[in-house]
Amino acid sequence: MEFGLNFFPVFAPERKSARDYYREVIDLAERADRHGFEHVQTVEHYGSPYGGYSPDPVILLTALAARTERIRITTGAVIPAFAHPIKLAGRLAMLDHISDGRLDVGFGRGFLPDEFEWFGVPMEESRRRFDEGLLACQRLWSEEDVKFEGEFHRFGPITLLPRPLQQPHPPIFVASASSPESCAAAGAAGHNLQVVPTIVSHETLLEMLDAYRGAYRAAGSPAGGGRIQVKYTCYLADDRATALERGAVFEQNYIDQMAGAIASWASTTSSAYQGYEKLVDKVRKYDFARSLADHKVLAGTPAEVTEQLEWVRENCGADLTVSLQLNPGYLEHEHSVRALELFAAEVAPRFTA
Question: Domain count of the chain?
């Protein structure tokens, strides 16, 4: 089991400035690099406190690549529906070179109605645009004189420059929210997987992982299986009371900001997102204590977080890479630094020896 850092800015601007947030992220990434963490990654969102400080993950990850030496640089995830594939593939190929071949590319569908409206993209097209955008990027990276005839994009012949440093292309991850079918599709295509246990039941999570692993093996993909990143928010402190107090505060902050970002689902239905019209009510019912008991979030002392991760390893598989959110919400930077140092010194060695 390996560990990385996941940066997801979820807070109102009056809580923390963009400048301060980026400086803190860079500092944490540098520390994670020195401590041997496997990756750093960030999201793509727009126009709200729910991730809005990260409208372009490539820019932030380029800064992290310039300040680190070994750690992998991961998009978690870019949204093909909001970008032309020539531009997206070109920007990511540049980042692959700037990072000296440390790039992993996670692709996602997007799920916020407001974002699709702002970009003028119908949500009904999201799955088709995702599939087409991923395929176009993969071809642009690995082929020359590409002539592409898709439903949404037609271009070429074109030979993308620069060519990616990693050949035939950077490792591809597919972000899946709750669908075993999409996980199976990612496995069948030989891609890697990104999942978030917070939003699904443990039974559904196991179905997703089993579907992915089975499809990956059935496709005859390279031995050893695809890489699976599982994302957890982690509240780690020297004492349990402090960790749980922060967890209660910043999990509620996350719920409040997410509820605002998904509010339009209350008046939106889409055949491409079955059941999402109930998402607002589902989010409002979130309970931190129950989530901790259900192993959807990590919190406590180093010994307690170690025990929680041992449960994850035993129940979900030892082949996971855990992507940790150690700076949730507007948590003071000094506390995030302490959490990282504690994790590196007292938790990670139990799994990476």
Answer: 1
Q: Give the 3-state secondary structure of residue 115.
A: helix
pLDDT tens per residue across span 47-105 = 999 999 999 999 999 999 999 999 999 999 999 999 999 999 999 999 999 999 999 99
User: Which of 70, 71, 40 has its CA nearest to residue 57?
Assistant: 40
Contact assessment for residue 326 and residue 336, using Cβ atoms and an 8 Å cutoff: yes
**96/93 Cα distance (integer angstroms):** 5
Phi, psi of 128 (to 5 degrees): -65, -40
Phi, psi for residue 232 in degrees, rounded to 5: -130, 135
DSSP single-letter state for residue 267: G
For 105-138, the pLDDT digits (tens) are: 999 999 999 999 999 999 999 999 999 999 999 9
Nearest CA to 130 out of 155, 147, 106 is that of 106
- Among 121, 53, 76, CA closest to 261: 53
Asked if residue 198 belongs to a domain, the reply is no
Backbone angles phi, psi at 103, to 5 degrees: -85, 135
Q: Is residue 345 part of a domain?
A: yes
Residue 209 falls inside a structural domain: no
Residue 78 backbone phi and psi in degrees, to 5: -85, 155
68 phi and psi, to 5 degrees?
Answer: -130, 170
CA proximity to 258, closest of 173, 328, 179, 342: 328
Q: What are phi and psi of 137, to 5 degrees?
A: -60, -45
- pLDDT tens-digit map of 42-52: 999 999 999 99
Q: How far is CA 28 from CA 25, 159, 224, in A?
A: 5, 37, 31
- Would you say residue 196 lies in a domain? no
Q: Which stretches does DSSP call E strand in 177-255?
A: 192-195, 228-236
Cα separation, 49 vs 41, in Å, equals 18
Longest dimension (CA), the chain: 61
Q: Please report, as a single letter, which amino acid is at residue 190.
A: G
What residues make up the domain containing 325? 1-16+26-35+227-353
